[in-house]
């Protein structure tokens, strides 16, 4: 079989995780796992049910995605373009799977990261609409958090994050949110009111 990322290279037999028969590209070091071999190997295991949020909490392991990660890949068995599933939030990489035969391609180092994250036994969940929707939501939240830090500075931003968490977990937290919204709804008017009717002196 030809390497999905470099057609000039022939894949060689390897074994992953002790007993999973796979194929590897000697040049790019990516791994091809056929659907039949993966299902056979998976049948002897009990997937741990790892969640998107638990993955995000583990960081990025200082992992640098392969330079081939962004390159489109053809299934070495079906010759069809494979679909991609995003993994990780901070430093994303993409696992690829054939939509026809369900074979899996991992670029260099990706299988090892899947093992570390506990995802290697249930790769199919990465391609579900629910998983990818949660991944997009986490990515959006991360960008929003970073923008808040850039606008407010790390110290004030952390105070905002802490308050948001307190209100989110408080049974009457929506009252706190409503109060803040009222304070910032008409800031100019509020500032004028404070100037006209200053609070009584404590001394």
Automatic annotation (TrEMBL):
It comes from the Bacteria. This is Zf-TFIIB domain-containing protein. The lineage of its organism: Bacteria, Bacillati, Cyanobacteriota, Cyanophyceae, Oscillatoriophycideae. InterPro entries: TF_Znf. Residues 3-41, 75-114 form the Transcription factor zinc-finger domain. It comes from Oxynema aestuarii AP17.
